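Long-time lurker. I teach an intro course on protein structure, and each term I like to show students one example going from raw sequence to a predicted 3D structure in token notation. This year I'd like something fresh instead of my usual example. Would anyone be willing to generate the tokens for the chain below so I can use it in lecture? Attribution to the forum is fine with me.
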Amino acid sequence: MKKLALPGLSLLLGSMLAFAQQPPAHRSQPTLILKDGWTLQSLYKVDSPGEVVSTLKFHPQGWYAVTVPTTVVAALVKAKKYPDPYFGMNLRRLPGMTYPIGQTFVSLPMAQDSPFLVPWWFRKEFVIPASFQGKTVWLKFGGINYRANVWLNGKQIANAEDAAGAWRTYEFNVANSAQPGKTNVLAVEVFSPTENDLTVNFWDWNPAPPDKQMGIFRDVEISTSGPVALRYPTVVSKVDSPGNPAAHLTVTALLKNATQHPVRGTLRGRIENVEVSQEVDLAPSESKDVVFDPTSFPQLDLDHPRLWWPAQMGKPELYKLELEFEVDGQVSDRADTSFGIREITSELNPTKGRVFSVNGKKVLIRGGGWSMDMLLRENQQRMQEELRYVQDMGLNTIRLEGMLENKTFFDLADRQGILVMAGWACCSHWEHWANWKPQDFVIAEESLRDQIYRLRSHPSVLLWMNGSDNPPPPDVEQMYLKVESDLLWPNPVVSSATAKQASVTGETGVKMSGPYDYVPPGYWQQDSVTTRGVHKECEAGGCGGAYWLNTETSMGVAVPPVESIRAMLPKEHWWPIDDWWNFHAGAHVFGDIHLFTNALNVRYGKATGLEDFTFKSQLMTYEGVRAMYEAYNRNKYVSTGVIQWMLNNAWPSIIWHLYDYYLRPGGGYFGAKNANESLHPLYGYDDHAIWVVSSQYVDARGLKLITKVLNLDMTEKFSQETTLDAPADSTARILTLPDIAGLSATYFVALRLEDAAGKVVGSNFYWLSTKAETLDWDKSNWYTTPALSYADFTALSQLPKVKLKVASHTERKAEETVTHVVIENPSKSLAFFVRLKIDKGPHGEEILPVLWEDNYISLLPGEKRDIHATYRTSALGTAQPSVEVGGWNVSSQ
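-- Reply from a regular --
Happy to contribute to a lecture. Here you go:
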């Protein structure tokens, strides 16, 4: 049902509620969002039962004022009860944080003296409009973690045995309890999850708060209908690919009879000028999925539809479906949804890798793993900014491993043309099937049903994974598959994120064989399906190379720029690296960053302090992330995709991200952005060849590739210009670099790709070593492959200091501001790894988030670049933007 929020109303007018209204022609039933005006308290401090707490007789003295959605700890932090748990080691100061550092709390019991071992009360007083009188009133919870007893006006609506499961949604008919025109009281007694519950799970990504994210973490809504409610309107598309001249639509929705008697009515639907209708009979209290299929309703066969495409393949076109159910000449309920006409399919390639296609065209999956906030806090503006970062990096996919985001996330992905991989979490009780009790099977099945209902209408959703680190056993997999079939799930289903065969569905065509910690950049191209095998060896580890779809992998550590380290740690722990740093790493084997640090000290020279270490970290992360994406791009469609582990973090972290918690893009961000440009020249670490990859879906003709090999002193050792065409979605070896005598210990390969008009359409710059970087494959494990020898880039310290010419001007364009930076290297030396920042005035705070056209760039002697940065005008406040320039051998200015 469509909902429009009107915040800030007084209690007397439906205080702290959102009252949705639309023009009469398409009005949905009114919806109230219960957001503000809640109070929160521990059961320790409440003597009254729910029958009393949920009435006006009860007066909540000393309760915390909170907004919902929220977890208990998030609310207490917002109320200043606890210090900022994201800073330093403050999280360990919270009560109940007695579990061992570096362990996964989700699988451990709470301490017996934890204040979160007992339930907490959420209480809300609100006015239900008098206009709700005589209608069916529905109370909906979008997400409760983990169990709840629910009371409304002194009557129990649900108990903790039935209302259990973090990923379930709940809707209750409360017509007999609601009091339209009066003040109502809703009381929810929430229980924290145990170590044997199907709960929210970050596993080894980051620490967990002491309440294990207990709370009401999604919206609470009250809506009305007539005798029958209409839910989950959905359109499933089949497209006549590859020409796509026609599409065939199936429309479905859930009808819920709220009465104790049979109901007959008419379900009507409209998509622009296409209309359908059918008579429906519902038994007493029956819920029924109703389907319009194109066989019975040929008007749902559309000629020349506007197709939904991922953004890099075309335009993500959206249509609108409007449905209404009529009983005895009166509309009982209305609902609408946006949808895209598209069909996603997959098949196994000759090496048994799974290839995805959208509307008949292959798509290489390039993405990152998503994390929700550690305290499950929601921030719509931040979410919008993060999805803009995804597109800016040239990524096309986000993976949600158990992080099944809110509707805003999927609506944004639909509109922006970003694909979403969704599925259950790894490890913990979610994969402890042998220990499941009968109720766990019920919770798992109902959780899947609720999520499939919720997600199936979104064109952005690419697939569903029924498992993560392991495929479910046959009984669980069959249970899941039946739900997906019954609800007309329109997308591919994969049994797990691994290459392990499922007993029911067989081959997955995907893998999650690592690495997760540091490997040199050449790793990704040296490890291949032809040299390493694809089953037993890969599952044992050390097979993260560029073939198949790697559902989670990376070079691991992602130390953020120096400003972020200073923001997350107190000054006395900035340097050297200590346990405070490690607390912001991961769990288990990822509890520190020694593999990365050791490699950095050998490859670039021992770090001398915080600024030196963090800057060298950007260098090493840039080359590592770039190499990973380049390898998968180059090898398509033997490689079918890669998900960087991870895209973002739940809290300030020094591992697994492409941009940090403060939305500060660093080396990894721009390594990814460079690798994923639509026309891209690249160097093969394995074959010393220069390749050109096209990720666009139109041909590019008359291109010119300029290849240069340069010594440290900028002496040119090799140069060649090559004319070429780049067909749509192609990859091609253009030339192989010859053996070159007289190379300096560290040397450079500069690549420039121009179109027929001489405009630069792709570029790349590598720093390489004459010392071979070799890997010890025999000692590979599930998270890394060690090196026998590392490249030597210590000669970079010999680069002369360079002072750049910098000029800038700024344009304010309503909500966005664009700063143009013209930067020139007037010297005869290389200006290496130049970082640009936009500050709020000279020496002010960096403006974030920001979309840089390019950054961490290198300028050859005499080279000049015009680079722009885009950011929110509101981020400036009253300050003037100030450009800050620094770099490896660049004087700060």
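Some talking points for your students: The chain is about 15% helix and 35% strand. The mean pLDDT is 94.
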